[in-house]
Amino acid sequence: MNFWIGKVAIVTGASGGIGLAISKELTKYGIKVIGLARRMDKLVEVAEVIGEHKFFPIECDITEEGQILRTLKWIEEKFGGADILVNNAGLFSLSYVMDSEADEIQNVINTNLIAPAILAREVMNSMKKRDTSGHIINISDIAALYPEALCIPMGMYGPSKCGLKALGIELRHEVSMARLKIKITTISPGFVRTDMLKRIYNFLNVSQDVLLKDLNIAEAVIYALGTPKSVEISEITVLPQGVGSNAILL
Question: Per-residue pLDDT averaged across 9-35, rounded?
Fold first, then answer.
């Protein structure tokens, strides 16, 4: 991890849950974290906990391309650009696709797939321009790996996470063709103790034994970043020990 000391990371959804845990872990290794979220008050609280010179809060609705572009322009001007991007922000819904309005469908897709694609596009082009090494990490879900095993309707959440996994594969192809020094990692967690998923835990009466901690996912991010220059971890699946994919909801 010494390589990343003094480098700059963007973490979306940094105001709580997995994003907060990832931000805390990154700063432990001397990485400056730019935390993005829609609620500035929550981000300010995070900055007070982590340290204002370690964590830099920016209010940004990632479903708005204009806000993404303005944010990245500011990062370029202040820090020279980002070296790490963690696409963590996600939107979960228990709604049925057949009962969803078009704007509900679009909101999930925009948050979980289109925003990560735009962020990756801009950050990777910045890395290419600077001829620097970088790392893009997408936080997906086991819903992208074992959708048949998760026998409950999740609206467009599952399809959007399947798309995020495919995005990582596409980016890796493009990196290879362009001979860029950028690694791409997709991390797919099982159920994590986060506020976003409280509704589904209550609905399914999910045992605490099958819930991961947000720190577990943050540690997976550190593991991927800490690999030697010649090693790329393309995918990481994180499940509670002793719990198979077909037993996650039992």
Answer: 97
Across residues 123-135, what is the average pLDDT?
97
Say whether 194 sits in a helix, a strand or coil.
Answer: coil
Task: Name the H helices within the chain.
Answer: 17-28, 40-50, 65-79, 102-109, 115-130, 157-178, 198-204, 214-225
For 120, how many CA atoms within 13 A lie in the half-sphere containing its CB? 28
> Is 101 exposed, middle or buried (CB count within 10 Å of its CB: 0-12, 13-18, 19+)?
exposed
What torsion do the CA atoms of 48, 49, 50, 53 make, to the nearest 10 degrees?
20
96 has catalytic annotation: no
| Residues 74 and 58 sit within 8 Å (Cβ to Cβ) | yes
Please give the Cα distance from 113 to 218 (Å, whole number): 20
For the chain, what's the residue count? Answer: 250
For residue 185, which of 234, 123, 143, 112 has the smallest C-alpha distance?
Answer: 234
Could you tell me which residues come within 8 angstroms of residue 65 by beta carbon, excluding any fewer than 6 positions away?
Answer: 118
Q: Which of 29, 96, 146, 157 is catalytic?
A: 157
pLDDT the model gives residue 119:
98
